[in-house]
Design a protein that fits this description.
358 residues, Lysozyme, Membrane-bound Lytic Murein Transglycosylase D, Chain A, 3 domains, 46% helix, two-stranded antiparallel ribbon
Length: 358
């Protein structure tokens, strides 16, 4: 089912126009007005729910996040550029799952749309899943694969999680508070304080700010030109043109083979496949994204390279470590670890026999 959905999504994305929310004119103004000249509106909604801006405390909380973000123009420019690359995927999934489009601002607030984002609480990826929650919603997380860093798969997991939070907590604002602080924490606090209204709950400061940061992001990113933030269309980041190819191997697959067979570099392959945590994958079946113009025959080229490898037995000499051995054979430390079922955390010793595939 997941593979079918991913295939459908890929087909949809091929015909999506490369557009962005920025409606900025080609020429930027000579000088940007001071931040203090901008105002928040008198009415606003989030996920179809009205924001009670007539309340002074609510208006103050939104203004704080609004001016905080406007004072960081460079950060907003990066968010807008990345959104042009990420939103075509996020919006399609939200629509397929019949979820409010406003939820696309959640990963902006969570990670700034950076797949390598990692919080002090060890939340990872675009949607900042902790490992326990990621696994609960079907994301694979191990020493070699971390699907929290994959935009499509993590967005599908986030959609399922947000549906459950909404059903449990009754409104999108309170559901998002649960996303930030944990559903059990919010449910317990709502019971203690006798309300499920986010705007009436007394919450930890981070969660108190969280929904208002999302609101401020929506306000600014929906119409950046209104706040004199100019991002020319030609400078927006775009979805790379890729195709997914099935790769299968009984032996570990190293990044140099994946890169060489696509006529790209290791950084390109890792960027197109952000779920890869290391420069080697254990034997198994994988779906590898490669540039579209290199996809034809890619699986065959990888299979040929893997078949050409020869097994070398290396006897560890005095003074050697995994790094020096890896350099000698032009392989990765991770590959040697996998081939020999060892870890760099445990020192190798003189005379130890190591298998190296060349």
């Amino acid at each position: 089912m997941t593979r079918l959905l991913l295939s459908t999504l890929a087909t949809v994305l091929l015909v999506l126009p490369q557009t962005a929310n920025s409606q900025a004119p080609a020429a930027a103004p000579k000088a940007r007005p001071p931040v203090s000249s901008f105002r928040i509106p008198s009415e606003m909604s989030l996920c179809g729910e009205p924001v009670p801006l007539e309340r002074p405390d609510v208006r103050e909380r939104l203004e704080y996040e609004f001016y905080y973000l406007l004072d960081r123009e460079g950060l907003l420019v990066m968010y807008l550029k990345r959104a042009a690359r990420c939103n075509p995927i996020v919006e399609v999934i939200l629509e397929m799952e019949e979820l409010p489009e406003d939820l696309k601002y959640v990963p902006v607030a969570e990670s700034g749309l950076a797949y390598r984002a990692r919080s002090p609480a060890k939340a990872v990826g675009y949607w900042q899943f902790i490992e326990r929650t990621a696994e609960r919603y079907g994301l694979k997380v191990d020493s070699y694969v971390d699907e929290r860093r994959d935009l499509t798969r993590s967005t599908m997991a986030a959609a399922a999680y947000l549906k459950d939070l909404y059903e449990m907590l009754g409104s999108w604002t309170t559901a998002l508070a649960g996303y930030n602080w944990g559903e059990k924490n919010v449910a317990r606090t709502a019971k203690e304080q006798g309300t499920r209204s986010y705007y009436d709950l007394y919450l930890p400061r981070e969660t108190e700010r969280y929904i208002f940061r999302i609101l401020a992001l929506k306000l600014i990113m929906e119409n950046p030109a209104a706040y004199s933030i100019q991002v020319p269309a030609e400078e927006l980041y775009r979805l790379p043109k890729v195709m997914e190819v099935d790769i299968e191997s009984e032996t570990p697959i190293t990044i140099d083979i994946l890169a060489d067979c696509s006529e790209t570099g290791a950084r390109t392959i890792r960027g197109l496949n952000p779920w890869m945590r290391r420069n080697v994958l254990p034997g198994g079946r994988y779906v590898i994204a490669v540039p579209t113009d290199k996809a034809e025959g890619y699986a065959d080229r990888v299979a040929e390279r893997l078949a050409e490898r020869r097994r070398v037995v290396h006897s560890v000499k005095k003074g050697e470590n995994l790094s020096t051995i890896a350099s000698k054979y032009n392989v990765t430390v991770e590959a040697i670890e996998k081939w020999n079922k060892i870890s760099r955390k445990k020192p190798i010793h003189y005379g130890q026999k190591l298998t190296i595939w060349q």
